[in-house]
Specification:
Length: 184
């Protein structure tokens, strides 16, 4: 894991990067292993996020949660993520600032050409390390969806997929729903 460190002048790299990424003008950004990455997606990417959000909306409401793309901090590392979609308890989202992945019920990333390697490997590993209970990888390049569950320090121990688009993907409790992947 990339860990926070101090430079010779006493500046904490983790604090400096996370301070800077929250103040990017004109858009959103995340920190990936110490590198600031500005986010910009096309309408096809937004479509997939919208389809997911619509299918999750009833369960999200019943669970008294919020679905969105709020900031996720990975404390003690040089990482600050902006997931394509995360579901978190509403009471936790009222506070200013970021959540940690373990405070979510689900994190989803939609793969695009520019994020393929990051979403498939790096974020999957980091979300598991930081306790995100479910990680849904919607891989538009491969035309598949994979659900990762049971996080641990070495990664997720349960993998459901990859399923070709058109195959339902079961989200376990507390969701208890089948996602229709045909429209992704």
């Amino acid at each position: 894991m990339t860990t926070a460190r101090e430079y010779d002048d006493g500046v904490d790299a983790e604090q400096a990067l996370k301070y800077a990424v929250q103040r990017v003008r004109g858009g959103r950004a995340e920190v990936l292993e110490g590198v600031i990455d500005c986010l910009s997606y096309g309408w096809d990417h937004e479509h997939a996020r919208s389809v997911l959000r619509a299918q999750l909306s009833e369960a999200v409401d019943q669970l008294k949660c919020i679905a969105g793309s709020g900031d996720l901090d990975l404390p003690g590392s040089l990482n600050w993520y902006v997931p394509d979609l995360a579901v978190a308890p509403e009471h936790l989202t009222r506070a200013a600032g970021a959540l940690v992945p373990g405070q979510t019920l689900l994190v989803a990333e939609v793969v695009s050409e520019s994020t393929a390697q990051t979403d498939r490997t790096l974020k999957r590993k980091r979300y598991a390390e930081y306790g995100a209970p479910l990680y849904l990888l919607v891989d538009r390049l491969e035309g598949s969806a994979t659900l990762f569950a049971e996080p641990g320090r070495l990664g997720y121990t349960k993998v459901d997929g990859p399923h070709p688009f058109g195959t339902p993907v079961r989200l376990p409790a507390p969701f208890g729903i089948d996602l229709d992947t045909a429209g992704l």
